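SDR family oxidoreductase: structure, please.
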Amino acid sequence: MKRLEGHVALVTGGSRGIGAAIAVRLAEEGADVALTYRADEERAAEVVERVKATGRRALAVRADSAEPAALTAAVDETAGTFGALDILVNNAALFLTGPFEEFGLAEVDRTLAVNVRAAFVASQAAVRHMDGGGRGGRIISIGSNVGERAVFPGLALYAMSKTALTGMTRGLARELGPRGITVNLVHPGPTDTDANPADGPSAAAVAGFTALGRYADGAEIAGTVAHLAGPDGRYVTGAALAVDGGFTA
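Here you go.
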């Protein structure tokens, strides 16, 4: 059974890594899927083809999440193209590490713009489409285990940005619940991606902080997102779910 049949989803930063895995999983569950990407058109096109291979419609929109107007336009284009918007996954993120005293204001501002402001802006834009016809909706943001446990130095900026999503999620859950919109946060643990490969130079040390002793596959994160987006997740809101192999246990 396709649990998301007839639904429309938008995944920001969906051209690679966890975002790509989420886009494909939502399509496998029956949703038509749009994704945003900043620069890599070829990778975005590959994900579009993977979505289409499931029999669903797909759309890739170039949009820098640091640009509010571009992000809002991507939300509106998704709803206009597919006729609705039921699921928003705030996935796009910037991961900068290093001693906090060495970060310039431009780096701080861009990190907060992409990791925090973009989720707020996209949610604002999405809600306008979710309200119509009493359909309700789902807003799911992708946080990080680092927001709950920063085990190495150099993570202050990234951890700060991801922790902010916890407050946003709780506040929006209260505000949007009466309108049938749930709002949740998923904290992935170390996940095997191009940017953070499971065979990277520090991977063994990072995996050692998990209870399971390994990295996740992107599909394991996507499975939790699909649950929250589907009918079985309709009574879950304001929650922060760790999918981290016991990293924060």
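Notes: The longest helix spans residues 105-130.
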